[in-house]
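Tokens for chain A. Residues wanted.
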């Protein structure tokens, strides 16, 4: 069987062109009936690109690897889903505690009654669920591995962090989205979102690699993150503090998993290394 060569530049070019094309069209048309369909098309672009790239590759090893990442539940190590959840929980508690120390409300330790956004009448909970599943199919289905096949997991995470952060940019002008609400509050909150995506990428990559590159594991964690970020009653200011603690957590994760992040044994032969 011929060895498969990942093409990260082509993948990310197609993803950005299709996603941004749909989202910018939605913004320019400013039509409430077309808003959700166009935003949804942009959202699924990474997943569609990954699926088409994989299943038109004529490489059986790549196809088998994709299927195994989706349905290979036996690959999951529950400890490496629980630990990131605990790390995130500690970061949130420290963030709220710091806020309270400087006069913030203790009510932030509670939960919101509802979600902060909806798109064209579509449930925010459904949006969070779809975003978690669809994004991970695209990013872990091909994107993360395409970078991981070229670089160690530290450099791959850094590149992907900036890429993933930038991918969201048009949403700040799409009315009804969470990101649009941040823009309305001010540039500080926009910058906080874009910056926070980078350290969070290292934690998500930790989940992915430690669970034997299980896409299912990252979907669970991504869904948990999105849900809790919406339901925990943190103020926008506290979420800025949270970015500091998430960054500290990411540094600790990297330092305590240096072998994982800096080894290069998988580079150039990611598909050949079986983690079963």
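Reply:
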């Amino acid at each position: 069987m011929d060895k498969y060569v990942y093409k990260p530049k082509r993948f990310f070019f197609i993803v950005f062109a299709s996603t941004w094309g749909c989202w910018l069209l939605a913004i320019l048309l400013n039509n409430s009936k077309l808003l959700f369909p166009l935003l949804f098309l942009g959202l699924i672009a990474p997943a569609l690109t990954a699926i088409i790239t994989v299943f038109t590759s004529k490489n059986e090893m790549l196809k088998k690897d994709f299927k195994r990442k989706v349905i290979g539940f036996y690959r999951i190590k529950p400890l490496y889903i629980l630990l990131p959840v605990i790390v995130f929980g500690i970061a949130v508690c420290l963030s709220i505690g710091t806020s309270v120390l400087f006069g913030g409300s203790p009510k932030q330790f509670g939960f919101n009654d509802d979600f902060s956004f909806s798109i064209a009448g579509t449930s925010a909970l459904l949006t969070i669920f779809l975003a978690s599943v669809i994004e991970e199919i695209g990013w872990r289905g091909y994107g993360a591995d395409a970078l991981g096949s070229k670089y160690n997991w530290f450099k791959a995470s850094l590149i992907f962090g900036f890429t993933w952060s930038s991918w969201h940019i048009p949403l700040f002008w799409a009315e009804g989205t969470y990101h649009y609400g941040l823009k309305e509050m001010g540039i500080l909150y926009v910058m906080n979102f874009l910056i926070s995506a980078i350290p969070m990428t290292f934690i998500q990559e930790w989940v992915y690699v430690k669970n034997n590159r299980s896409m299912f594991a990252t979907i669970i964690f991504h869904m948990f993150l999105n849900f809790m970020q919406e339901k925990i009653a943190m103020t926008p200011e506290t979420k800025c503090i949270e970015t500091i603690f998430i960054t500290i957590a990411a540094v600790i994760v990297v330092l305590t998993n240096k072998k994982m992040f800096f080894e290069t044994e998988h580079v150039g032969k990611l598909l050949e290394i079986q983690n079963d």
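The chain is about 70% helix and 0% strand. The radius of gyration is 19 Å.
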